[in-house]
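Methods — Computational structure assignment.
A single polypeptide chain was analysed. Its primary sequence is given first, followed by the predicted tertiary structure written as structure tokens.
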Amino acid sequence: MTLHERLSKQLTRAMALYQLIAADDRILIALSGGKDSLCLLQLLAERARIAHPRFSLVAVHVRMTNVHYETSTAYLEQFCERFGVPLHVVTTGFEIGGDSCKTGRDLRRQKSPCFLCSWNRRKQLFNLAQELGCNKIALGHHQDDIIHTAFMNLTFQGRFGTMPALLKMRKMPISIIRPLCMIAENDIRQFADEEQYERQQKSCPYEHESQRTHITQLFNLASQLNPDARQSIWNALDGDGKLIEEY
């Protein structure tokens, strides 16, 4: 079995296990231009050609005016055209220390550019999903992201939880799905090399300031202690119902 076939199989398995996609879904793909979102679009577009379940796709690329995290628009257009997925490009921004986020939890985290960037990108995605008639938003988080988030929540927030594979929104008819949830980052990295994905022109200036760097090291240590640590942690999240949630 080729890597491409294995990733496609893992995505199909995740769809079935976590009820990610149903017939007649219209799915908005958050296309950052990084390897994860490109892989997500390719695998979903290939899966959409199969008769069951029948679903449609649209991609959205959000640019931030004050964070120079760039991907060639021409490349994204060509990539989406190759797989028959319409692309929308929107531009937004945020003010560090501003009052764009109103809840108490948001205000406590406003000093983090990563949180503000993510919050404003997510806001644009929700707005566009409703404008384009989409009932689901697909994000490119892979299994490592989900496991590392569980580590971060245990370490810094004292709770056992993570980014679920399926998040159903109670207040609006939109769900967030993570179809790459059962795929390891190293496999996506290898697949991106095989497919010769174009690298982003500039990386995020804040990416090395995140606690995720230390959490990755912690997870790597756990994997050295137990080669099955990845599956053990995943089983714990799955068994405790953390991979399908409502918000």
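Note: The domain at 3-246 is CATH 3.40.50.620 (Rossmann fold).
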